[in-house]
Amino acid sequence: MFMFARILAVSLLGLLTLTHAASGAVLTAKLSRPSVYGGRHGGGEFLAKVYEDGVLIGEIETYCLEFSEHIQLGTTYYASIDPIAVRGGGGALGTAPNTYDPLGQQTAWLYAKYVANELDSMVTGTVSLGEFKNGFQKAVWNLEQEPFTTSGYTSDENTVFNSLLALAAGSGYSGDIGPLGFEYIVPLGPDSERVYTVSVLNLYQDAAMTMPHQSQLYYTVFERPRAPGDLPEPMTLAMWSGLSILGLGMARRHRRKESA
User: Fold this and answer.
1) What is the mean pLDDT of residues 181-188?
2) Nearest C-alpha neighbor of 178 from the set 200, 150, 153
3) Which of 92, 93, 174, 213 has CB 3.0 to 4.6 Å from 203, enough for a Cys bridge?
4) Overall domain count for the chain
């Protein structure tokens, strides 16, 4: 079996908006590949570096949401952090060309558990790290109703895919995430908890954001105290008002290891 180690990205977290214009900041992003990435049919895993006014605010592991859109590795894109995939793909709403696809709660829940290192023990079978990532990407496309290519996967990748879909179906979530993203809480002890907020990183070729490219899963994470007597809630929807975590622009990278 293998162990996952995630990039713990602690970044500036404000209210999620469709254009991120409230702060007046310019967001950009650049994608690359990790050493083991899967990549079946051009999918993830990817590494995304996100910048605010040119300053790195987060580096995360991510997967693409649309099957039919593409990105160029190493290219700097303008970006927005939203609860929707702009233009979308399968399941898109609105009127062309201004269609959009809200991120599903089950997709957000799976991704939160992925970045929180909670899926390796839940998936049965001995598979390589690359095969797991291909199965995870396939599950994301399926949950987001993308018309993706279903052929070419190994039996282990399909086993991972089916296991993840079963987990998502049993999560108790359905429908789309709210305007502030999807919140997943991991208790750290009696007095503190780690909060993951999942949303969408939309990429654009131009500053006016009229030429969208591939949309990616995105998350922020921070720790906060928990009031005495609070019961740990493993998962909740983010419903805060006016939350702003300022001045945390550091990202730590934890290397992933794969054991025999």
Assistant:
1) 93
2) 200
3) 213
4) 1
With respect to residue 216, please indicate whether it lies within any of the assigned structural domains. Answer: yes
Asked whether residue 2 is assigned to any structural domain, the reply reads: no
The pTM of the full predicted model, rounded to 2 decimals, is: 0.78
List all residues 6 or more positions away from 146 whose beta carbon is below 8 Å from its beta carbon.
Answer: 65, 66, 67, 68, 89, 90, 91
Indicate left, alpha or beta for 202 from its phi (over 0: left) and psi (-120 to 50: alpha): beta
- C-alpha 93/C-alpha 117 separation (Å) is 32
Cross-strand pairs, 217: 200
260 lies in some domain: no
Per-residue pLDDT, 154: 94
Under DSSP, is residue 222 helix (H, G, I), strand (E, B) or coil?
strand
Rounded mean pLDDT, 229-249: 38
Domain enclosing residue 26, as ranges? 8-252
**Residue 215 scores a pLDDT above 90:** yes
Output phi, psi for 239, to 5 deg: -130, 30
Rg (CA), the chain: 17
CB atoms within 10 A of CB 85: 28
